[in-house]
Design a protein that fits this description.
The protein is an alpha/beta fold. It is built from 11 helices and 7 strands. Strands 3-2-1-4-5-7-6 form a 7-stranded mixed sheet, sandwiched between helices.
């Protein structure tokens, strides 16, 4: 008689990848919990959620899901538009700031800890699914895209924003990545969510018909580049998490030099808007 444990045991390679995936997501959570992401989001990202909500057109009483919602950039605006809103994020440490901002705006949002690759929601339970620079950081893009589509009701609308590879934020993440170890094989580069061709492939076969637009945002200026570097290196989680490693390797100052060059040339910051409707 065959032992049941033998029939259900996963291959060693698959078990190893699952462990690496879980570790990767723990690091991702720690990255966005580090520093002061609420301050970064409010200073640099806050106009974009409002733009996306207006583009998608949320009606009163519609059920809205904001995936990788952070502090509620899109979720709060969707609630202000009359939606019944659920915000899901892998990093619940951000919810305290989100609750404060929602209370200040006079709206209610349901905040749920959850993974963009395994959303804690029922199939076809939302009229609108949004993500503003959020789901792009889920490592397995195909899995995340199918989860977004799964959550949408028939005729539901999708709205996703992602930094483009050639925009300034794209250049920043590429510069930072050049100093860090290569990610594991299962993790696709986040900036691919800023490529129309890549996103079309992600949603192929999901029933979601897509259209695209490119927009720009102007980040508020600091009094000096030194002030901006100080803000970034003390508030922005990816830099805070990278700093000990790069200092130990002697490459931290080189990264700061690269960042200074990007800031000196900075103009409007480009991002891709992905709009969709589920047939």
């Amino acid at each position: 008689m065959t032992d049941l444990a033998e029939t259900t045991e996963l291959p060693e390679a698959e078990t190893t990848e699952m462990a690496e995936l879980a570790e990767f997501k723990q690091r991702t959570r720690a990255t966005w919990a580090a520093g002061d992401f609420p301050a970064v989001a409010e200073r640099q990202l806050w106009p974009i959620g409002e733009r996306l909500v207006k583009r998608v057109g949320i009606g009163r009483g519609e059920d809205v899901l904001d995936v990788a919602c952070g502090t509620g950039n899109a979720a709060i605006r969707a609630a202000q538009a009359g939606g019944h809103v659920v915000g899901v994020d892998l990093t619940p440490e951000l919810f305290e700031a989100g609750r404060r901002l929602a209370a200040k705006a006079g709206v209610e949002v349901i905040w749920m800890e959850g993974d963009a690759e395994a959303l804690p929601v029922e199939d076809e339970s939302f009229d609108v699914v949004l993500s503003v620079f959020g789901c792009m950081f889920a490592p397995r893009h195909e899995v995340a895209a199918r989860e977004l589509a799964r959550a949408l009701r028939p005729d539901g609308r999708l709205g996703v924003c992602g930094w483009t590879p050639k925009g300034q934020m794209g250049e920043f993440f590429q510069a930072l990545g050049g100093y860090l170890p290569q990610p594991p094989g299962f993790a696709s580069p986040p900036l691919l969510w800023g490529s129309e061709r890549h996103v079309r492939k992600l949603f192929a076969g999901t029933g979601v018909e897509l259209e695209f637009a490119r927009e720009t945002v102007e980040f508020p200026r600091f009094d000096s580049i030194d002030d901006e570097l100080e803000f970034a290196t003390t508030k922005f989680g990816p830099l805070i998490m990278a700093r000990p490693l790069l200092e130990s390797q002697g490459t931290w100052q080189a990264l700061l030099h690269d960042m200074r060059g990007l800031l000196e040339e900075r103009g409007a910051v480009e991002y891709l808007v992905v709009l969709g409707r589920k047939s």
